[in-house]
Structures are given as structure tokens and as C-alpha cells.
Amino acid sequence: MNLATIINELNLKILTEPKDFNVIEVTSGYCSDLLSCVMTGAEPEGVWVTLMAHSNIVAVAALLDLAAIIITENAQPEKETIEKANEKGVTLLSSANPNFLISGKLWEMGLRATENE
Amino acid sequence: MDNNRQPITDELAENITRTEELAYELRISEAMTKNVFCLSPDMEMEDVLNIFQEKRISGAPVIQDGQVIGLLSIEDLIKALRNGELSDKVDNYMSTNLTTVQENDPVVEALRIFSMTNFGRLPVLDKEGALKGIITKGDISNGLLKALQHDYHTEELIRYRASHLFEDIVSHRTSLILRYDIRKGDFVHGGNASSNIKRALLRLGASPQIARRCGIAVYEAEMNLIIHTSHGGSIRVEIEPHKIRMEAYDDGPGIEDIELAMKPGWSTATHETREMGFGAGMGLVNIKRCVDEMRLISSKDRGTNLYMTMYLPDSEKS
Q1: Domains in chain A, please, with CATH?
Q2: What is the SS3 assignment for B208?
Q3: What domains can you pick out in chain B, each with its CATH number?
Q4: Contacts of B215 in chain A (CB under 8 A)
């Protein structure tokens, strides 16, 4: 599904410079607040659901080629973090809802992830 | 989009030319003429004749109160000439059946309209309906040609700069060495070294997969230097055509039990660091998973040296 659909369905606020979200394909989801776990488990072109809003999330998303980060529970990234995200072309989205709810809704919309044995 | 268009198969997608791709990528705002000469409805056709001749245009939008209310083309002017009515007003000849396009739409939208109608030009509006420019078929051709040319030049530049590096410079063994100093506790810059390294590898022709794996490995090493060292440390990456060697050095405090450190989930991160989402205890495990070879040497007095190697198959990197 494309990122625009996710943004509209989940009513997400766009924190970084707008892009043509219609052409950004999202192929999986990952939810964790532990950065090294994200490094292990998040797949490229996936969307990352997290409570973390500090600047290090930007590097993680850029290194893993993630489609976007959904920052939950209204956690507010600082201006520098948003600037860094714009520089690196990372999309930051915001929701008032918590990780569980957002992940659940994404699953309902059909978003999946690779299952481990 | 038309309903009788067939879905794009993989094979078809491979054959879509760069030009077709560009028709979808290029925005109308990038191809259109921006300084549009506008007419007002109460102008005389005589004035239009002079304007069209002077400015060498064949059509113009008619504006009233900041809104586009019509379009006057050279055909309309010819009609007025035939009737011998050059003192007549613009609003008697302009066409009000307007088709417009949005500035952020791809040019393929304008192409669709041009192919289905006999319009020569389309007014371009922004989201609020204000006139931003005019687009003609010629504008689209020029825009596509320019974009193709730019593509070509950019391709040439990148290819020359990067991949020829190892070909043009002659030695028995050439390598490019990148060095980064990492400061202890410098979370603000955390990830900069690894993202620069990943980018460098992509520029030099490494595959996205290799660049990504190296990026992840160096990121973990970089964050370890930021989180766990006494005085920070340094990262050294040596890039050769068939091998990438990544090294991280610090002078303390050293890892007491390397086996324990390699256990998933085990971490010595402080409470503050864990609150930032670090300290999952997966760093070294991630590195081992990403690279082809890894060696960790550490002692309490001399600090830690981490060596990571990635081998590149012959098909990668020129």
C-alpha cells in the first residue's frame, strides 16, 4: 500500500516536508522502541512505529531505507530532529495514539511483516 | 486514468522508457511558461492582434479579478479579423469552456488532455485556483528534453567521479580510506559517520544491499563508541574493489567478558541511555549478522578494537 493511504486512514500529522506520498510504497511494518532491535528487524521500505522522538531515530530510518517513522503518543521531536529528517529525506509522521493501536490498525489495513519461525 | 488500460506487468514495466517515466515524474510546474501575458475581457481585439504579434504568442488567458475566466487563441483572433470586428471586446471571442491543470500534477496529465482534445494550451492553476502559468505541447517536449539531458549529465558525472576511481588510478593495490572521530556521548551526531559511509559506498558503485549492511554494522560500532567508551574513539573504513574493511577503535574501558557482550540482550548501557531506546544489547550481534568477518579484541587497560570485513563479489563495483 502507499504511504498516502496510511497517512489518510490513520489521520497522521506530517512533521517533515511533504512529498508525493502516493508513490511511496510501504511493504512492511515494525514496532519497537529499542533502536538496535529496529536495526535487526525492520525491513527496507517498511514503516516504523515508535514512541521515540529523539534525533537518533532519523539515522536509523535513513540507514534502513524505511518508508517513514510513525511517532506515537504525541511525542514531539525537536526542531533539530525534524531538520535532520528533512536533510536526510526521512518522513516523520505523528499520532496521538499509542504503538499498539497504530500497529493494530496497520495490520487491519493489510500491512504485514516477515514471520520468524 | 482510463478503465480500459491494462495493468502493468513486470515485463512491461521493464520496457517503459525513461521518457515515459519522466512524463510521470516531471511536474507541470517544471515545464510550464511562468510569465504569462494575460488579457482582460474588455480589451479590444485590435490590442490582442498587436500583443500576439509583438510577444509572438498564439494564445493567452483572460483574467478578471484575479481569476481565469477564459482563453483567447489565435483562431479566435482570426474569427474577429474575418468579421472585420477588431474593435470588438475580448469577452465576445474568448472561450469560456475552460480546461485547466494543476501545477503539481505530472505532465502526463496535460498530455492526456492534449491527446483527447484539440486544445493548444492549458492554463495552470494552483490549489487555490490562481493562475501560475500556461502549458503547451511544446513546453512539455522542452521540459522532457531538458530533464533527459540533465539525467544524462548527472549520470555521466557520478559514473566518472566514482566508479572510475579504482580504474583510472593505477597501483598494485588501490584503496580509499575514510576516517571518522567519534566523541563520547555525542548522540546529536550519532549515525553521521555510518550514513556518510553508506553514501560513499553507494557512490562508489556498491549494491544497495551491501551499502545497507555496512551502514548497519558501522552504525552499531559508532553508537557503541558514543555510549560505552571512556573517551570516544575512531572509525576507519578501507574500501577496495573487492573488500571493505571497517574498524572501530577506542582506549577504554574495555570489554570484560566478550562472550557475554556478544549475547543478544546483554548490555551495560546506563539508565539514561536505555531511556533513549539504546541498550537493547543487540549491537554486536547485529554487526556479526551483517558482515562477512568480525573480530573483537578487548582488554581492560588497552580498550577495544573491532574489525569487520565485507567481501564484494566480482559482479559488484567496477
Answers
A1: 3-108 (3.40.1390.20)
A2: helix
A3: 10-143 (3.10.580.10), 171-311 (3.30.565.10)
A4: 63
Is residue A71 predicted with pLDDT exceeding 90? yes
Handedness of CA B111, B115, B121, B127 (dihedral sign): negative
CB contact under 8 A, B192 and A59: yes
Q: What pTM was computed for the model?
A: 0.60
- A 10 A CB-CB count for B184 gives 14
Residue range B30-56: mean pLDDT, rounded: 90
Indicate yes or no: CB of A52 within 8 angstroms of CB of B277.
yes
d(CA B256, CA B151): 53
Q: Is the dihedral of CA A44, A29, A113, B192 positive or negative?
A: positive
Closest by Cβ to A37, choosing from B194, B195, B282 = B282
pLDDT in tens, B48-72: 999 999 988 888 999 988 888 999 9
* Least Cα separation, residue A33 to chain B (angstroms): 5
Pairwise CA distance, residues B272 & A33, whole Å: 14
Round to whole Å and give the CA distance between A56 and B309: 25
